[in-house]
Hints:
The structure holds 2 protein chains of 2 kinds. By secondary structure, chain A is an alpha/beta fold. In chain A, about 35% of the residues lie in helices and about 25% in strands.
Amino acid sequence: MSALLSVTDVHIAYGKVEAVRGVSLDVAGNEIVTIIGANGAGKTTLLNAIMGVLPLRGRTTFAGIDMAPLDIEDRVATGLSLVPEHRELFGSMNVEDNLELGAFRIAKAVAATSLERVYALFPRLKERRKQLAGTLSGGEQQMLAMGRALMGAPKLLMLDEPSLGLAPIIVADIFRIVGELRSAGVSVLLVEQNAQAALQIADRAYVMELGEFVLSGTAKDIAANKGVAASYLGFQHEGESAI
Amino acid sequence: MNTTIMLFLLQDGITNGAIYALLGLALVLVFAVTRVILIPQGEFVTYGALSYAMLATGQVPGTVRLAVAMGLVAFALDLFFARKALHARLVIRSVALNIVFPVALLGLVYALVGPHTPIAVNIALALLIVAAIGLFLYRIAFQPIAHTSVLVLLIASVGCHLALQGLGLVFFGAEGLRGPALSSAAVTAGPLRFTGQSLAVYGLTVGFIVALWLFFGYTKTGKALRATAVNRLGARLVGIRTTLSGQIAFLLASVIGAISGILIVPITTLYYDTGFLIGLKGFIAAIIGGLVSYPLTAVAAIVVGIVEAFSSFYASNFKEVIVFTLILPVLVLRSLAAPQVEEEKD
């Protein structure tokens, strides 16, 4: 199988402390893959390193291209896109400007159709298109961050904790949209603490603990795993310890 | 005091203030995009002014050779930093920008220079020379340390100022130069006489402010520059090259500086080190604008110009003291009003 994204034996260190140790994963085309795990397991670190925000040791290829010599801007051009945990919007610019900048690398004519598609996906953004990004609610900011990333017509969208700090009804909305991205031909690598929601929409899942993958498999199998259920889904099974 | 003197002083103040406004806007622009406090802005002014003045006398200014030399260094840096992933497109682009452009400029200067070269050609050549220097200055001195703290960038900036000022002494000598006026026309309105030169100052200042406003509000590149200023990581994540944004900011700043110099060199004699003081006045305006506000900077620059004109009339010995003292109450007020800000970490 030729994976869209393939990460092999990756180590990421902050100074002398290794935050991620020997992790390998892959994401195929039209696939939704999730990485679940507790706070501090190294999920965000891993996504940032795949994007090029942090340096890593190991091998990453995307769409057949070796990512090592490319910096963030070039990785974006290959169709890899990250919606970071802190969203990193342009707060003092309006919604439409934010979206247009998302298509910075894209031809103008293509960008116009992308804009229509993003507005169709997030009607709320269309209503607020002249509002400054910094004045949006948390949920709207998350939608804008996703919309901005989609404007660049990515092949793989990496989402870092999209549900963080949002009301349950908005979380449901966002997960529904993530599920819809597959039909638009976008693969998704989703990092989530909200394991239950993530496992519902994902095809496959990796469980991360203290910088290592301790378990991987189809989302269905992972959700059914008793250890995972105890640790991340809030169910307790008698006589079972954590993984 | 009589009204006529007051009008004269106001006119003088506004003319100088317009120049300070241009410089202040360039400082705000560069700081917003790159976090560099551009101390060498004054050198862009002197280089522009004196290169123009020398070209007008039919001499080749040393600045064009400096541009070629800086281009070579910039090219070497490009190759060094890209050594791990050297592809042809990158090398061609680097050769075109860092070698072909300054060498072509050198050739152009030698081909066109002469005592009878039209003023417009001399202006264009002077602007191109300083634009090249500004662009390469960013590539050589600031791009490799773009991720460091504001303090490190400031120290590098002071270093660039000292180096460029020293080179200025080599190129232009210790004696001052004056350039020919853009136009000898003049309009009289009541007691005031507006020379073509001062009208050009007003016109270009207003024109530049409008052009900058259109550029930042309506063009893709302008918006990308603003985005870089607002959120560097966010900008990189949508594929905006922050190094390119930095280059564009320095290019604009050096061109603005050179234009300011060309506008004032027919009015006052400029020396190799005059630019620093002029740049500092733009800096005061930029500080009053908090290094973020373009309109506030422009207004503050006019105020600085007017205060300078009046103080040079009433207490000419204390002219600079009075102007620079303006900054103190502003800093006190700002430090009281603003909450403590931690420096951003990269």
